[in-house]
Here is the input.
Amino acid sequence: MLKFLETIPATDPLAKPEQRQIIDQILEENKDIPGGLMVILNELQNRIGFISLAMQQYVSHKMRIPTSTVHGVVSFYSFFTTTPRGRHTVKFCMGTACYVGGVPQLIEKAKQTLGVDPGQTTPDGNVTIELCRCVGACSQAPVVVVDEEVHGRVRPNKFPQILRAVLDQGKQTSEQQA
Amino acid sequence: MAFYRSHILVSVDPKCLQKGSHEILDSLQDELVSHGLVDEVQVLETSRIGDPDVDGPDLIVYPEGVHYANLSVDDIPFLVEEHFLKGRIVEKLKAREHVLSDEELGAPKSKEVRVVLRNCGKIDPNNIEEYIAEDGYMALAKVLTEMSPETVIDTVMQSGLRGRGGAGFLAAQKWKFARQSPGEIKYVGCNADEGDPGAFMNRRVLESDPHSVIEGMAIAAYAIGAEHGYIYCRAEYPLAVKTLNIAIMQAREFGFLGKNIMGTGFTFDLEVRMGAGAFVCGEETALMSSIEGKRGEPRPRPPFPAVKGLWQKPTNINNVETYANVPQIVLKGPEWFAAMGTEKSKGTKTFAMAGDVKNTGLIEVPFGITLREIVYDIGGGIKDDKDLKAVQTGGPMGGFIPIQYLDLPVDYEALASVGSIMGSGGMIIIDEDTCMVDMARFFMEFTQDESCGKCVPCRVGTRRLLEILTRICEGKGQEGDIEQLENLSQEIRADSLCGLGQGAPNPVLTSIKYFREEYEAHIREKRCPAKVCRALISYEILEGPCTGCTVCARNCPVNAISGERRQTHLIDPDICICCGICMQVCNFNAIRIN
Here is the structure.
């Protein structure tokens, strides 16, 4: 058993058997292809949702490359995150057309509604708001992406409606848990 | 093999079957027999043609390509007699043209020429047969059976095709270098890391016509002697990645990728690699680092990728649009391609038009068209009939082109002569309400954030530029700031390692060059002429138009607006953050910026 694995927190994906299995499978399938590190990290980010420090160490061990190299790649690309995000992500497109088209106003509105700044997650872990690079839907500017769904021509007073669906879901989940 | 002069393809989509395709098939057969046409006209079953809900049951007749829809068995005797016996198209049975509800790509405007976008929205990207029906993979067949790699390179050279990724290097020249580089193993790469904000031409091609890119890459691979290729697609485009993967699988099934393609002994296969949100990976050497699984940092050139590229092997990298042009050049001949465009820029270019123009979306125009034609004839002019202020081309590494150059013919050299670049094809139309200092700051914020940090001029220089620009926008500009911006820009341009740093100062330099008075107004008078920079403006509610509807007060993020219902509202300037939401939501134009 790897030494660092004994010390990882119980909340880490590596400590959860079903996620551990996914991680192992991703590594097994891709570790020997040329340039596999990027493929592996993309898969981990997609399926686990983030790449914890322990996961980086694990990747480095399995691929026999230095942890510094793995961390260097993880920290280089903005898509890779090292902490878990909210259940839902609301992204504001910062492309030129959206910037000119009124995304800054939408961000103000979101800060007011959710009480968090871009890059942060609401305290209940439900929604993360983020700024993102141009999503290429410029003809519909300004654009807000809620999870995978692109909302175009969003006006500040319509923004709460878009959020409502996500917020309602969050409420249900927390009520169920309660 | 029997030769038929006509083919009837009848849709046997489940919905069409339900609506009676079988009866139509039987009736067609009977009628053809009775007119003695069975040896001339072939009847085939095919998958869906139009929208089965609207058009079904329907059929299409080739070579004419006529689409007959909403057919019933009773129509068939007349149809066969008219179309196949007398050779007259039956107008009343033809499918109605569907109104395109495509927000990105409308029907071509009069000055457009669609080469790269020709299949977009017309064929099903997930069905390789539809691409084949549009002469797909014919060019690859021609290349593999009739042409030597050298002839392919010569053909592309004669066409004058230049790289559509931005730099505008002759595509065939790159291929030639890669072919001449010694080495057993070579690679072709496709740059689909379309990171410029405001540009989405390549995404559309990948999502709507992926096979044209695959075919172009296979031809390039044959020309340079590569057996393996990579498409590097940005992670922001999940649908493009999915479509590409389906297309690659289908191309393998049909034997257009893999070993011994079309029985010619040529082997080529392809895979998609995803980026992870780093703009600099659109630079070809950074892109290669990323495919290799490393940090996407650029490498010094030389050695050029054609000599030492992916894993130190000779590599040819072109962008999506460049490859998508190649099959057409092979099929229609280099002369056809070279007949379009200007002396040094041949063919067509796709642009993604965005910003304050009436018709936003994708366009494809021959080089040499003027900006005026693009903005007014194709774009329909400026929204709300405001005045045009500038056109920004080439993304964050490009520049602003002011209205005095509206009649400039659009090609690589002309755009460079006014300080901008062609870039990959983003085009932002800017109206009078846009502050050029703020725009320059916006682009610099982007480049500063995306600078990979490997070389000092770019890493530190862009940061300093941003600090000065931010200061000016906040009303804290000083005398000498403009000169400092200019000096710093020259040095960053001269000393940076890759195109990102070399191009980063372009928005600053062009905005100073053409809109210097705006900088001076910010610095000397602490005034933003376009009324954009928040520190230099204030909002006011006008007594006359305000109806006291409370919309502004309810939407204000900082509760700076007070007032009773049906009474004129008031903005507290000490609380107001000048976000402009009130102005956007006000239905009575009661809010003014001072």
